[in-house]
Specification:
The chain is mainly alpha-helical and 67 residues long. It has helices at residues 11-28, 34-62. It has a domain at 34-59. Helix 1 runs antiparallel to helix 2.
């Protein structure tokens, strides 16, 4: 049985989408400026990419390969 978030892209993807939605909502209601929104999106994307890279490197060291 697959994990609950696997059907929508995994927990890291769901968390990233949630962060983007929150940042967008804050910008929509004028709690973030455009520059702050860009910084939030860049930080979110960087964290997603870093997490993916670290996971792939760790899986390769352990000999795990995705099916």
């Amino acid at each position: 049985m697959a994990a609950p978030f696997e059907c929508v892209g995994g927990r890291r993807f769901v968390l990233t989408c949630g962060c983007v939605l929150i940042a967008t909502g804050l910008c929509w209601f004028d709690k973030l400026t455009g520059g702050e929104w860009v910084a939030a999106i860049v930080a979110t994307a960087a964290a997603y990419i870093a997490g993916n890279t670290i996971q792939k490197a760790t899986d390769n060291e352990l000999g795990k390969h995705p099916d």
